[in-house]
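Issue 218. Parser rejects a valid record. Input:
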Amino acid sequence: MTEPMSVLELVRNASFLVQAVMVILVLASVASWVMIFQRWFELNRVQREIDDFEEEFWSGIDLANLKAELDERPEDQTGIESLFAAGFGEYRRLAGQGADPDAVLQFVQRAMRVALTHEEERLGRHLPFLATVGSTSPYVGLFGTVWGIMNAFRNVATMTQATLAAVAPGISEALVATAMGLFAAIPAVIGYNRFSSRVEALMKRYEAFADELTSILHRDAVTA
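Output the parser choked on:
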């Protein structure tokens, strides 16, 4: 009775094209895991920064003083700090010129929309790659499987007596490509769905803060 072949032996004995498919899937899987951990730490950091800034913002601090604090470290400003700096900076610039309050608020909103767009792009970084790996890896693995099975049956055609023992190794090594495709795709899909929902939730908090800041500045412009 022969010993069953290990997965490593199946990979080593696979054809060059199937091995190339496996290498691509391994690289895609490694890159996906790197990006998953990077996004996880980044979004957790953004969540903490939003909580800390909103606590300071609603503590009753003078907004001009808060803006002055942020101006002292422009390179370290976080997403929500950049949003506040863009809106309040535009408000002070135009209000000091005696512009119409409604016109001032329109420019403030436009400045914050630009900041929101930049922040959405930053938060969603790497998500398209995860979506691509999640959607294409099973098909890449399936391609390797189909090619491997074709080779296995071509080899059988040259044999005078075909047996299951002769066909099984070729089919087994081909199926490894499908398994590797699923191994790369499943974490990528889960990561993409999870991080997409978190980015959406964070963007809603940014938008809510922008609306609150707009209301505060509107009241200040009217009473000024």
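Fixed in the parser; the record now loads. The radius of gyration is 28 Å.
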